[in-house]
Amino acid sequence: MHEQPAEWLVTSLPKIRKVNSLLPKNLHSNNLRSFEHARLTTLEESWLDTTGIRPQETHCTIIIPVHNEHRSLPSFLRALMASQIPSSADLHFVFVVNGSNDDSAAIIYDRLSDFHSFGDIRYTVMETVIAGKANALNIGNDIALKNHHTIAMNIDANNWVEPDTIPLLFKRAHQEFSDNPGDVVLVDAKAIYAIKNNTQSPIDRFWFRVKGNNVHTPLLTGWMYAWNPEWINEVGGFPSTVTEDSAIAIEALARGRRIVHSSARIWGYISSTLVDRQKEFTRYLLGAVQLLRHFGRTSLLQNAISPEYPLDKSMWETLQYFFDDSTRGKNIAHFPLSLIKWIRYEYSLLIATLILRKKPDIQTWAPIKSTK
Asked: Where are the beta strands (DSSP E) in the chain?
């Protein structure tokens, strides 16, 4: 079982208690008829307080791509059901089970029955044999358009939202898309990284203690973000020839649109072993090569996805690049480290290239053990 980080619980519990503390007041109100009615009123007050928008005026489609997530779904759904969402809001949860060969769909059907304990929250479970997040998001975006929703968002099924994550992301998206529509088409959530210490060997612990847990910051976290469904439709949908969420971000920037960040937070694990960190680096380069193939070698793309890696150079030009990088500070002692970085880079790029040669239309990643 893939459980939430302990830090997620520490952060989320006070938010749950804060909302629940309003229940007694509403429960003893003469105007309310039952516990369910009191809870709905409490959630409606919380939603209005967080977003500034009445639940009855809230409209949003929330897409959850699911690909072989049987280990993550139970804890993911528990976190989702702890969200401060009133059933009076027009929120449509769309689970797109794509190319899965496990019991993900059955888990969703089983767990989502718990939603009805607290009202009629709308959800749809769709299954498709076509694997890939882009395909799942495009299916969800079509549903958002049919719902006439001006806001859609995604949540990755192996991450965890805090109780106020959805309303906070909706608030910022509503401000950008509805209140003051302009050139903003994507609103990102903030990724909060946790680490699984029980997956680390003594060597891993020593290395990460010395080097730290540096995480590459992408244009878009991918774990959770909101968008304007009409704009996605205008640009032809999410690119289905690349696996990285950065593809739609680069599409936006290339068209002169903007990406903004919200205060909404979503939790997930980062790779915590040297072996997994290497796999993650290979995966990163694989995604970068896909993006280069899709968009071409533009300066915008090079600076956006890999400013520190010369993807458009030969092996020997790359060696010269790393050597120059190590001697810019006139410290020749840095060269051995740069040589190691070059070897690691070339090895990872070779593996990524071989994967793409074997599966040119690859749409799913191999799982990283310490993050699952």
From this structure: 59-66, 90-98, 122-128, 152-155, 160-161, 184-194, 224-227, 258-269
Query: What is the value of pTM for the model shown?
Result: 0.87
Q: pLDDT tens, 150-174? A: 999 999 999 999 999 999 999 999 9
What is the b/e burial string over 3-34, where b = at least 16 CB atoms within 10 angstroms of the residue's CB? Answer: ebbeebeeebeebbeebeebeeebeeeeebee
- What is the structure's pLDDT at 342? 81
Task: Name all domains of the chain by residue range, CATH numbers in brackets.
Answer: 6-270 (3.90.550.10), 273-372 (no CATH)
Distance between CA atoms of 135 and 83, rounded to whole angstroms?
A: 26
Burial class, 337, CB count within 10 angstroms (exposed 0-12 / middle 13-18 / buried 19+): exposed
SS3 at position 62: strand
Rounded Cα–Cα distance for residues 175 and 167 (Å)? 12
Cross-strand bridge partners of residue 194: 269
